[in-house]
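Before the break, one more example. Copy the sequence into your notebook; we will annotate it together after we see the structure.
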Amino acid sequence: MVIRNAPLLDDGTPMPTRYWLVGAAERESVSRLEAAGGVRAAEAAVDPVLLEAAHRRYAAERDADLDPAHDGPRPAGGVGGTRRGVKCLHAHYAWFLAGGDDPVGRWVDDHLRAGGAP
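Here is what the structure looks like once it is written out:
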């Protein structure tokens, strides 16, 4: 239901999004949550200090997989390629499902288990 990308595509293009939600049912459920205002609701509900820390952990995990000799463009940002706030519930939930310590992913999981409403 989740895939993990390398930090660079085969042609060297930076790939900021490390985890992708590919399970059809999960993608659809998270899409409905987003359409119902889930991004704004999650951003309002999650402590911004915890969210910022999650972005840093995500970026550090992704960047640790770069070849130390790499001197070209590097991926930027945290979860979903953003440095702050919530951009994509799918990216947060994918990382959470893959074992990441993501407060937004946890929020998504809680809401999906409760029926999906923000």
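The beta strands are 2-4, 19-21. The chain has a mean pLDDT of 94. Try to locate both features in your own notes.
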